[in-house]
């Protein structure tokens, strides 16, 4: 049997929010690559899929540094891509798990850039397949019963690391705006939403679908000093009240 | 047992792209509401979930007219909302299926607007839960191995029914733009992409994840007279070559 690589989106956190296709596939894998957790614990992506794994699977955790040093990051991606290629070359069914969807704001894309079009030592192309996952904002909309966009409307998915004028333009140009990576930037974002009269049309959710999920429908009431969890996202919908 | 309503996103088309949560739930439903198919056939949403349904389920197909007559549409939504409310009131586990994700460009939101905050005859609130689904563009990105956005980038999800200057602005302001509802507007959209130098950064996919899936990586080669399938979507990523 020829080796193959599968990139699998785990969805936002709950194990039963992965797709049926991913659940079935996970049972058959020989090797699963997962981003390493902090402090020696399971990675979040790994903990989401653990219940579906077959007994034969070998787990390969890899640490992806959150550093600004581009050279250091690239060396890690090069190494993980080489390791995966070697496993596929050896005829293994190899998985790589990422939170949410693997094609949106995901480390997977750096590996895809290295492995797409790759030819193995025997001259055959490296076979790979991606299995989509539920994005956090889709889960947040459902859990908060707060719609994203409908009919002629549009949605923008932004990172809060963007410049304030870029975020402001998006909030004016689209009925729905998803603000990812709120962590550490909540006060500035809240001021911007207040300025644009959007506080009543915004919902903040942290750790969507996990046991620690928290929802704030009244952003004005969130304590300025409160440390929001790392996975905090704001969904704004001008056409709907929070 | 108290009645409850579940809105279930079926994902883009393949039965195994629904979530494990949705699959488990579908087995237990008493009633399933589905948009009616054309010409007496199964609705697409219904055909996606049929294999998961329990034997006890009663299927209620409802025709949602694609008319410009707002009054006619509203009368249908009012009636379906009333029918669902009656079933929940009677203690039933009621499902409503929609293609893709139920919170994005979905008929479900019109029902949500009617049922949110509803109080039943016995004074209890109408209990409801939404189960997210994979959006078509997420499936397209995976199937075409063509990423959406990463790091500081942003993504806009637009309907091609928007004005050309609105689409043009989105294509200039976001690295990734998803163009939904291409059907009948392909030539204008292709001209716009050509004008902005984006033809090489666009992928068109119709019927993603279905047996009839078609992918075009060279939009210039698509026959102008060709009638694209109804479910045709273009994904543009300025930072990636198609």
From TrEMBL, chains A, B:
Enzymatic class: transferase
Keyword Signal on entry: no
Domain of life: Bacteria
PROSITE patterns: SUMT_1
Pathway: Cofactor biosynthesis; adenosylcobalamin biosynthesis
Keywords for this protein: Cobalamin biosynthesis, Methyltransferase, S-adenosyl-L-methionine, Transferase
CDD domains noted in UniProt: Precorrin_2_C20_MT (cd11645)
Family listed: Belongs to the precorrin methyltransferase family.
One Pfam match: TP_methylase
Protein name: Cobalt-factor II C(20)-methyltransferase
GO MF, any single term: precorrin-2 C20-methyltransferase activity
InterPro entries cross-referenced by the UniProt entry: 4pyrrol_Mease, 4pyrrol_Methylase_sf, 4pyrrole_Mease_sub1, 4pyrrole_Mease_sub2, CobI/CbiL, CobI/CbiL/CobIJ_dom, Uropor_MeTrfase_CS
Gene Ontology terms describing biological process: cobalamin biosynthetic process; methylation
E.C. number: 2.1.1.151
Domain (Tetrapyrrole methylase) ranges: 4-218
């Amino acid at each position: 049997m020829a080796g193959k690589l599968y990139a699998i989106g785990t969805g936002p956190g709950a194990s039963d929010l992965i797709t049926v296709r991913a659940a079935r596939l996970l049972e058959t894998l020989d090797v699963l690559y997962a981003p390493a957790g902090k402090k020696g614990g399971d990675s979040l992506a790994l903990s989401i899929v653990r219940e579906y794994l077959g007994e034969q699977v070998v787990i390969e955790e890899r640490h992806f540094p959150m550093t600004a040093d581009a050279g250091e990051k690239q060396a890690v991606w090069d190494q993980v891509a080489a390791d995966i290629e070697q496993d596929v070359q050896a005829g293994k069914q190899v998985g790589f798990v990422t939170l949410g969807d693997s094609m949106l704001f995901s480390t997977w894309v750096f590996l895809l850039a290295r492995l797409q079009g790759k030819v193995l030592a025997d001259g055959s192309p490296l076979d790979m397949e991606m299995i989509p996952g539920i994005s956090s904002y889709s889960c947040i909309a459902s859990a908060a019963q707060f719609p994203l966009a409908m009919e002629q409307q549009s949605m923008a998915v932004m990172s809060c690391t963007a410049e304030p004028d870029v975020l402001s333009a998006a909030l004016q140009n689209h009925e729905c705006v998803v603000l990812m990576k709120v962590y550490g930037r909540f006060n500035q974002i809240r001021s911007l939403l207040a300025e644009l009269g959007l506080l009543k049309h915004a919902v903040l959710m942290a750790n969507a679908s996990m046991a620690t999920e928290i929802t704030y429908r009244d952003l004005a009431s969130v304590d300025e000093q409160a440390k929001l969890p790392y996975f905090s996202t704001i969904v704004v919908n001008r056409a709907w009240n929070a």
